[in-house]
Amino acid sequence: MTGIPVRGKVIGEVETIYAEFDYPSEIENFVRYMPVTDGYEPSLHSKAENEKRLFENWKKYLDAVRYEVGAD
């Protein structure tokens, strides 16, 4: 499946941005090495499922920011 390595690379880029912008708490939910705070158990899921969850968290963040700035 070609999507999985690409997802990992994209998540790596998010982690680079996270570090370069001094670790903003707003994006912790889609940084793979940050601890989970919502009761989700990564060890019970596959790597692909965990990466999918990070992307879903990222989408939720982007949707919330889009709403805040009124960019529909």
Can you walk through the features of this model?
- The radius of gyration is 13 Å and the shape is globular.
- α1 crosses α2.
- The N and C termini lie far apart (33 Å).
- It has helices at 3-20, 47-69.
- The protein is mainly α.
- The longest helix has 23 residues, at 47-69.
- Helices cover 57% and strands 0% of the residues.
- It has one domain (3-69).
- 1% of the residues are buried.
- The protein has two helices and no strands.
List the helices and strands and how they pair.
Layout: H1 3-20, H2 47-69
Helix pairs in contact: 1-2
The SSE order reads HH
Q: Structural class, judged by helices and strands?
A: mainly alpha
- As a percent range, the share of strand residues is under 5%
Helix content: 55-70%
Tell me the major beta sheet. Answer: none
Q: Average pLDDT, to the nearest integer?
A: 89
